[in-house]
Amino acid sequence: MPSTRPEGREGLVSARVQALVAHEGSHDATGMRIGIVVSKYNDVVSTPLLEGAVEALQLHGATASDIVVAWVPGAFEIPIAARELAEHGEVDAVVCLGAVIRGDTAHFDYVAGEAARGIASVHAATGVPATFGVLTVDTLEQAMDRAGGRLGNKGAEAALAAVEMASLLRGLPTGTSPRRRGRR
Predict the structure, then answer these.
(1) 107 classed as catalytic
(2) Which of 10, 70, 138, 143 has the most C-beta neighbours closer than 10 Å?
């Protein structure tokens, strides 16, 4: 639904900008089908990310039957499963979850960079939002802090970002494709 300004941001934008018709998505996942791709590598981190994502989706209206989970070997493999879900999985959005923890070699840089590029290419190529919930951290402690620890759950944040983007795309004036209108 168009609005004149994002909720709670009245003091942050000028009167000129406030007068414009703005569009923003919502976190209402009711009736949306969401794909989640999760890395098995570092599953001590990715499992709580998945749990946070599922909990957030269900708290915002998704049912268990609306959520499709695909486990992949590692973060490097996330993009291919995400693209398959986006192209053929009849999903409104894809949430990508995993953890790449820096080690003593350059492996971290290659895996993290390719995972990020691959996930970005999914939504660029398909028009289906694919959110980046892959933690790229220096230590396991940093990862656990972001997987339900003291810094929240980035899986839940990635899930809500996916829902918000799917909702936004549905509401844009150019949202005439079947993916943007919704399938249900």
Answers:
(1) yes
(2) 143
